Amino acid sequence: FADDYRGATVVFRGEIRTEPLTEQAGLRLEILRHWWRTGRPREDHGLTVAGGHGNWSGHEITALIPEDAEIIRFGVMLTGTGSIGLRNPELRIAEPTHGA
Known about the structure:
Number of strands: 6
Order of helices and strands: EEHEEEE
Strand order of the largest sheet: 4-1-6
Strand content: over 45%
Number of helices: 1
């Protein structure tokens, strides 16, 4: 549930590994909103990486969670053939940036 994240910027981070012949893969963050208030049922945020890399590599998605968010779903996505691995997944509130 989005209760603890409303109004904050979150970071979804994880390490991805794809096997040879994997087409497209990546991280996904989906925000389900109170659609009856806004008319927009969800927001999708994604990061796609080229497949076929056997080494683990770190990736992240940053998104602002709206005040009317109900649920946050996060994980991996795979388009086409192949396989994807995820390790060390983390969803956290982003550290504040100190601008000049």
